[in-house]
Amino acid sequence: MADGVFGVEIVTPEQSLFAGGATGIVLATSEGALTVLDGHTPLVADVVPGEVRVEPGEGETLHLAVHGGYLQVDTGPTPETPEGSVAVRTTRVTLLAGVAELRDQIDVARAERARDEAQARVEELRAAAGRTGTLGPEDDGQGAEEAELVQAEAALRRAEVRLEVAGSA
């Protein structure tokens, strides 16, 4: 690979979304925003829902909506290093996402409907909590309503991420 270009693979349980060279990848982890460039320190990190940008070695920037996963950055000798010579280190990035979509594959109308439905459900559940003062049984504070609110908020965030990446937010 050319100088500054490293291998990137982005996969979900269903498919490989990208496999090729990149000069950079930008994403969010629970520790904050992260940019990986060639020569990055090896690491494993969680990926939080948001946009992932891949700057390919050639061509246009790739934008993905990722709904969580794990990132591994690894370094090692290039496969073509001749035996007996000084090994050249290369960077390899693997992003394992539970759910991810390429920008051009996002159904904006569907994402807008999902956002509207999730927003209505979140508001309904929050209003119900305001009337009762709690979302669950008073003995443990963890009720079915609280779990439903968490699920509705997650659905709302997924829809918002899709719309942000699609440029329709």
Word description of this protein:
The chain has about 170 residues and is of the alpha+beta class. It folds into two domains: about 5-105, ATP Synthase, domain 1; about 110-165. The chain is built from two helices and nine strands; from the N terminus they run E-E-E-E-E-E-E-E-E-H-H. Strands 1, 2, 3, 4, 5, 6, 7, 8 and 9 form a nine-stranded mixed sheet that branches. Helix 1 (about 110-130) runs antiparallel to helix 2. The longest helix has 25 residues, at about 110-130. The two termini are about 35 Å apart. The mean pLDDT is about 85.
β-strand number: 9
- CATH topology (level 3) name of the largest domain: ATP Synthase, domain 1
Compressed to H and E, one letter per element, the order equals: EEEEEEEEEHH
**Backbone shape:** elongated
Q: Mean of residue pLDDT?
A: 87
Distance between the termini: 37 Å
Overall structural class, as computed from helix and strand content, comes to: alpha+beta
Spell out the CATH superfamily of the largest domain. F0F1 ATP synthase delta/epsilon subunit, N-terminal
Please give the share of residues in helix.
Answer: 25-40%
User: Largest beta sheet, briefly?
Assistant: 9 strands, mixed
Q: Spans with pLDDT under 50 lasting ≥5 residues?
A: none
